[in-house]
Each structure stands twice: as structure tokens, then as C-alpha cells.
Specification:
Layout lengths: L1 H6 L9 H29 L3 E7 L2 H18 L4 E7 L8 H15 L6 E5 L1 H9 L1 H4 L5 E4 L3 H6 L8 E5 L4 H11 L5 E6 L4 H10 L7 E6 L4 H8 L5 E5 L13 H11 L2 E3 L11 E5 L1 H16 L10 E2 L3 E6 H6 L12 E3 L5 H53 L3 E5 L5 E4 L1 H7 L7 H8 L2 H17 L3 E8 L5 E12 L5 E10 L1 H53 L5 H28 L2 H6 L1 H16 L2 E7 L7 H22 L3 E8 L3 E8 L6 H7 L3 H11 L3 E6 L5 E8 L26
Parallel strand pairs: 1-2, 1-3, 3-4, 4-5, 5-11, 6-7, 6-8, 8-9, 12-13, 19-20
Antiparallel strand pairs: 10-12, 14-15, 14-18, 16-17, 17-18, 20-21, 21-23, 22-23
Length: 752
């Protein structure tokens, strides 16, 4: 507000022709650009609230726009689009200029639906209200940066749709502050460009102090003559500066130069805060940011739909005294003379204020150093105690590790072996003086190194415990199977420090397990051979004889010319019974050994068995198959067929349902058999402990072909049996877990 009021002091002076021509050219260019841009922006503007700011100078725009925008966005929930323009207050009395300016505004905003116009200064308000019907018809207007006395000079009431916030200039308070700080002052000089409105206000305020000071008026534009007039002012004179400090007028001497010269010569007080930083002692000013926020609140109410006529014009004239500490020092003004609540700006900091952070930092550093020294001494004592405890603990660990029957090892976070116990070194006959790496590398079987190394590498990434089996060469050259279990270690700060593991020799257990598997396989094979023999005998001998007997009985029946009724009936029953016996014997033969399995494959054999079982027990068995090859290894086909037989018999016996699903699915690597029912279900854990041989037999068969077998069941929730076997699975009964040392040694289990 201060600068716009100051700028109006220049309006009585004509502008030069060159300035006027340049201004008109600038307006024409601006009009063309705004016209081109307005069309492309109109679509986006329709969805936003549009606010037009009309300032009295570009400097005022730079000072107020950001504050207005942030305050309006905080008070209005809708998206806001801001438009800015300004008027040259020095030419507002030129009717041609106003008409040209109105035409510019019309073309710039004819395609923009404005929601409110915010104007500053009395000249801008008069211009907008005068050309309102052309520029912004029916658009509400909110004004600021003018006083109530200026509104009175308009000579009429505010037109409809106009409201705002007024604020006076603190000339009275500024004059009283100057006289308070300079009690020996004899002259008060008013430096202004012409005897305009604000000069008359200053003259009125100075008339109240005629008994103390004499008023001197210094009129003139910022020129050399004005500087000479100020230089001629007598001592004990105070200056009230009212020139526009930032004027659009082109001149070799600007208002700022005049102000700086006056401030060097005599104590100078500024009517507007905009001039404050250029050498003025101070003055009484409105808190401009609060004033902007107050005006933005009024504009927000208008944007929210409130009628301007219902918003009263409120005056915001809360003045606060502000002084420049540097000027107080220059003119020897004691701070005690300032009125209470005065704000002192640009004060040079005291020694404490200048170096407070360094002083505090030095004190803190000294205290920190003292505490650090004390902490180091205390830490040193604790370290010695910890080292003693650690040494004792390490001794206990080494004694325990060397006496345990396991092979103990440790590694760091990168997998490098850092410790092997005595039994481990003796097992591989390693020399601890050469380091642990060579003994570890040379002792692991080449075929096991890759998988073992991958397991350790993954564990080092996840920091999780792990276990694995691998073959380790004993000092006599024989490889022994080791079961190694490792757990993560942490250091004193809780971070990962590597692994500690222990390995035990499980070769004997593996031999026993393989012997048991071999025996189980031999028993199953013997069982299958016996089944095959009985099936052949039943099919090739008994079934043929029963069929022949049935044929002869039927022939005898037909050959009898007039058999008695009882004899005929008896022969028919004997024939039927023989046929049923033949079918049962044939079914038993198929169950013992399915010839279909050998000739047509497991898919046809399982499907045929499902069909037979459905007819025998009146069941509904849904058989699904996909991608199952016709020719599979004999042991794989037989395993899947026997598992299906046993599982379906169990469903018939125990489930109590009449609907069963059998799925046989082939993939690139495996064949999966899945049998599902929704029957009574059972507890697999309890069944494995107290049940019969059915589940054990199925599991053993699948295990012999290196497959996996699982049972999913709960009481009352049905049962699902899943067998997954490799397509090329073959038992290797000759596999020996103990191997002699081989060639082509590979990288170690754990590398450095």
C-alpha cells in the first residue's frame, strides 16, 4: 500500500512523448499475446474459479501477489486460476489512455469467466468501476490499499457488488514518533512531489504541533534541484519523506537517490514502509501481511457465493512503530526513548549473539571431551574384565568342542572357515598350521560340492539355520556321509557374524536305511511275482476250466428233449453260478496282476479298474486324465496302479461315500495320481501310528521309485491321497553310500 500511495504523488506531472509511445506499443503487444493465449486457456478456466488482480504498479504485484494467492487457496476449496494486470497510475487522468487500457482488458478477458476482481489503490478502483460493464460485467470487486478518506473523496457511495478493506497511512503516528525521538527538533520538512491529497493530510497532522516545530514544504520531482533544496535545510530539521520510491518515470535521478541523500543529511522518517530500508529512521506502519490476509478473507467469502453488499467495508489501521537500529546509532537516539512495543530492525548482534553457537559448541565440546575421557577410562576397565571373561569362555568352548564326538566348524559372514575342532582335523588328517581352507576343500566329495556350496550361499544371504548331507573324505581315503547342522552366530552388537555347525557321521544309518529299502523292494517284487503266477494260474487254468464246464452244462441242457422242470432249472442255476464264478475269478486275476497294465499302459489299466469297481459296488467314480504317456517304466506304472488299487479299496471300506474322483496327470518330469473323496476322513498321524499296512505299503511303493506320497485328511472333511513319481524313476539297488576318493576335485563347501 505504501508504494502505491507514494506513486500517486507523480500524477500531476506529464509524461514525455517517448514514454507514452513506448507504453502504447507495449499495451498493443500485450493485448495480442493475451488474445492468442486466452482461447487455448478458456477450456481449463471454465472448471476453475478465476481471480483477476489489478495492481497500481509491477512492484506492488511482486510484493502482494504471492501472499494473496496462498491466503486465497487456503480459504477456497475450489481450484483457483489467477490473472494479473496493472495500471499506470501516472497516466490515469488521460482519458485516451483509460479507453485504450479498457480495450486491452476487454480483449484479454472476454473469454474468461471472472469470479472476482481484486484491485489496489483508488485509481485502480475508479478505473474498474468506470469500465466495469465492458471489462467484467456483473463481477464482484474487492479493493484494498486505500484509505477511508480516499473513498470519501470519490464523492459517491460504492456501487453494487463492491466491498473491501481500507487502511489509513500512519502519518500522525510517524510524526509523533519523530518528535519523541528528537525533542530538540525545530523544523519538520515534508518532501513530496506536489501538494496532493497526502501532503494535505501531513500538513493537517503537523498543524497540531505548531507550537514545537515549523513546517517546511519541499516540492519537486526527483531532480538535482530537489537535492539542492534538501541540502539547504537547516540543522535541527526532521524530514517526512513522501516521494514515490519506485516510480515508472524515466529520470537520471530517482526517488531512491533523493531519499538516500536526505537520510545522509538529516534524520528522515518515511510515510510508507516501502522506503524503510533505504535510510529512514522509521515510522508507524500497518502489518501488511495481516492486512493482505484480511482482504483475502473478504475475497474468499465472495468466491464462496456471499454477496459483496452483505460484507461491510472494514478499516484495518493497526499501526506499529518500526525503527532501523543502524539509524538510531547514527543519530545517537537511545533505545530507552522508543515507545513501548517498538520493533527494532537490523540490530547488530552482541558478542554473545554473534558467537553464541560457537561458544555453546565449545562448551559442549569441552564437556563431551571430559565425558568421553571418563567413558574411555570406564570402557577400558570393562574391556579388561570382558577380555578376561571372553578368554575363559573361549577356553571352555575349545575344550567342549574338542571333546565332543561331532565335527565342529565356524565361518565368518562371508563364508570363510575360521575354526575347525580337533576331531574335524583328525578326521581329515589336516594340518591346522596351513589354514582351514585347504583341508575343507580337499575333503568334500566332488559330486557334493556344488549343492552343498549353494545351500551355504543361500544361508549366508538369509542368515537362517540350515542342514545338509554331503560326503567327507576320511584320512584313510574313504568317503563318509555326514549330516551337518548349522546355526547363525551374532556378535556383540547383535549383527550377523557367520555360522557355527556340527557334523556327525551318518553312513551306518544310510546303509541300514538302504538295506531296509532294498529288502522292502525285494518283498514287494516277490509279492508281485507271486501275484502274477496266481493270476496266470487263475486265468489260464481255472477260468478256462470253469468256462468249459459252463459250456458243457449249457449243451447238456439244450440236448435234453424233454427234461423235467426241476432238472432244467437246476442246470440253469449251475450254469449261472459257473459264469459268476468265472467272472469273479477273472476279476481276482485282474486285481492280482492286470494284463492291461502291461499291454495298454497305466492310464487304461486304472480306468478299467475304476469301471470294474464302480459296477461291483455301485459307485460313481469320475476319472480324469491329461498328458499321460502310454509307455512308462514298468516300476512306475505298477506303482501308480497299486496305489490307485489300495486307495480306492480304502475309500470303499471306510469313506462311506458313493462319489470318488481319480486324477492322473502327466507333466514333463513327473506323473501325479490324486484320489479324492468327501467321506468320513481320518487323522493321518494317528493312522500312521496305529493303522494297518495300506498307507505304509503305498508310501513304500512310491518311495521305491523316488517319488513323494502325501495324505490330506481330517475327520469329517474327506480325504485326498497324492502320489507324485518321476517319469523315468528306477530303483538303484546297487547304490553304495560309501565311495572311494575320486578325481577332479572342485571348489570347497565353504569358500574364503
Amino acid at each position: 500500500m505504501g508504494r502505491t500511495r507514494s506513486d500517486r504523488e507523480c500524477e500531476n506531472h506529464g509524461s514525455c512523448d517517448l514514454c507514452r509511445t513506448f507504453t502504447l506499443l507495449l499495451l498493443l503487444i500485450s493485448t495480442s499475446l493475451l488474445y492468442l493465449l486466452s482461447g487455448s486457456a478458456s477450456a481449463a478456466q471454465q472448471t476453475a474459479k478465476n481471480v483477476l488482480f489489478v495492481f497500481s504498479s509491477q512492484d506492488q504485484q511482486r510484493r502482494d501477489l504471492d501472499s494473496f494467492e496462498s491466503a486465497l487457496r487456503a480459504g477456497v476449496p475450489q481450484h483457483l486460476t489467477f490473472h494479473t494486470s496493472y495500471v499506470d497510475f501516472e497516466r490515469m487522468r488521460d482519458a485516451d489512455y483509460q479507453d485504450s487500457l479498457a480495450e486491452t482488458f476487454y480483449h484479454a478477458y472476454k473469454n474468461v469467466k471472472l469470479d472476482v476482481v481484486v484491485v489496489s489503490s483508488i485509481e485502480a478502483l475508479q478505473f474498474i468501476t468506470h469500465y466495469r460493464d465492458k471489462i467484467a460485467p456483473g463481477v464482484p470487486i474487492v479493493f484494498y490499499a486505500l484509505s477511508a478518506r480516499e473513498l470519501e473523496l470519490m464523492g459517491q457511495q460504492l456501487p453494487p457488488g463492491v466491498t473491501g478493506r481500507t487502511s489509513d497511512v500512519g502519518l500522525r503516528e510517524t510524526i509523533e514518533l519523530a518528535l519523541r525521538l528528537h525533542p530538540d527538533a525545530q523544523v519538520f520538512a515534508v518532501v513530496t512531489e506536489s501538494p496532493d491529497f497526502w501532503w494535505r493530510v501531513a500538513q493537517s497532522e503537523l498543524s497540531r504541533h505548531r507550537d514545537r516545530v515549523k513546517e517546511v514544504d519541499v516540492f519537486g520531482a526527483p531532480e538535482k534541484q530537489l537535492l539542492e533544496s534538501i541540502e539547504a535545510l537547516p540543522p535541527h530539521t526532521l524530514i517526512l519523506f513522501q516521494l514515490a520510491t519506485l516510480s515508472a518515470r524515466e529520470s537520471e535521478i530517482r526517488a531512491n537517490d533523493v531519499l538516500a541523500a536526505a537520510a545522509r543529511h538529516l534524520p528522515t522518517y518515511c510515510a510508507w514502509k516501502a522506503s524503510f530500508i533505504l535510510g529512514c529512521v522509521g515510522g508507524a506502519y500497518v502489518d501488511w501481511q495481516k492486512y493482505i490476509a484480511s482482504t483475502a478473507e473478504t475475497a474468499a467469502r465472495v468466491l464462496s457465493g456471499e454477496r459483496p453488499e452483505n460484507i461491510p467495508v472494514v478499516d484495518y489501521s493497526n499501526f506499529e512503530a518500526e525503527v532501523d537500529w543502524r539509524q538510531l546509532q547514527r543519530w545517537n537516539i537511545p533505545e530507552s526513548a522508543l515507545p513501548p512495543g517498538t520493533m527494532i530492525l537490523y540490530r547488530e548482534p552482541t558478542l554473545w549473539e554473534s558467537y553464541r553457537k560457537y561458544i555453546i559448541a565449545a562448551i559442549v565440546l569441552i564437556i563431551a571431551q571430559a565425558l568421553l575421557i571418563a567413558a574411555l577410562l570406564w570402557q577400558r576397565a570393562r574391556k579388561r574384565e570382558a577380555e578376561a571373561v571372553l578368554g575363559e569362555s573361549e577356553n571352555r568352548f575349545h575344550v567342549m568342542a574338542d571333546t565332543t564326538p561331532s565335527l565342529v566348524w565356524m565361518c565368518d559372514p562371508h563364508g570363510k572357515v575360521t575354526y575347525l575342532n580337533k576331531r574335524r582335523l583328525e578326521f581329515t588328517d589336516s594340518n591346522p598350521g596351513t589354514g582351514y581352507r585347504d583341508s575343507w576343500i580337499a575333503s568334500v566329495h566332488p559330486d557334493d560340492r556344488k549343492n552343498t556350496q549353494e545351500g551355504v550361499t543361500n544361508a549366508l544371504k538369509t542368515h537362517q539355520a540350515f542342514s545338509q548331507e554331503y560326503r567327507l573324505r576320511r584320512k584313510d581315503g574313504v568317503y563318509r556321509w555326514m549330516f551337518d547342522v548349522a546355526a547363525p552366530r551374532v556378535n556383540g552388537v547383535g549383527s550377523f557374524a557367520g555360522f557355527i555347525g556340527s557334523a556327525i557321521d551318518v553312513t551306518d544309518q544310510k546303509l541300514a536305511r538302504q538295506s531296509l529299502e532294498k529288502m522292502s523292494g525285494q518283498l514287494i517284487e516277490a509279492q508281485e511275482r507271486e501275484r502274477s503266477r496266481i493270476a496266470r494260474e487263475l486265468h489260464d487254468d481255472i477260468c478256462q476250466r470253469l468256462a468249459l464246464l459252463s459250456t458243457e452244462i449249457e449243451g447238456a441242457h439244450l440236448a435234453s428233449a424233454s427234461p423235467e422242470a426241476n432238472t432244467t432249472k437246476s442246470l440253469e442255476q449251475i450254469g449261472i453260478l459257473c459264469g459268476e464264478i468265472a467272472l469273479d475269478v477273472q476279476g481276482l486275476s485282474h486285481q492280482l496282476h492286470s494284463s492291461i497294465l502291461d499291454h495298454l499302459g497305466v492310464e487304461t489299466a486304472v480306468q478299467g479298474f475304476c469301471d470294474e469297481l464302480s459296477k461291483q459296488h455301485d459307485l460313481q467314480i469320475e476319472f480324469r486324465t491329461r498328458d499321460v504317456p502310454k509307455h512308462l517304466p514298468k516300476d512306475v506304472s505298477l506303482c501308480l496302479f497299486r496305489v490307485a488299487q489300495e486307495a480306492l479299496h480304502n475309500v470303499v471300506k471306510y469313506s462311506g461315500v458313493a462319489e470318488i474322483t481319480v486324477e492322473l496327470i502327466g507333466t514333463t518330469d513327473v506323473i501325479q495320481l490324486m484320489i479324492t473323496d468327501a467321506g468320513a476322513g481320518f487323522d493321518p498321524e494317528e493312522a500312521s501310528q496305529h493303522g494297518g499296512l495300506g498307507l505304509v505299503s503305498m508310501q513304500e511303493r512310491v518311495h521305491l521309485v523316488h517319488g513323494t506320497f502325501s495324505v490330506e485328511s481330517k475327520p469329517g472333511e474327506g480325504t485326498r491321497i497324492i502320489a507324485v513319481v518321476p517319469r523315468s524313476a528306477e530303483r538303484n539297488d546297487s547304490e553304495d553310500p560309501v565311495h572311494q576318493p575320486g578325481d577332479n576335485e572342485q571348489p570347497a563347501l565353504i569358500s574364503s
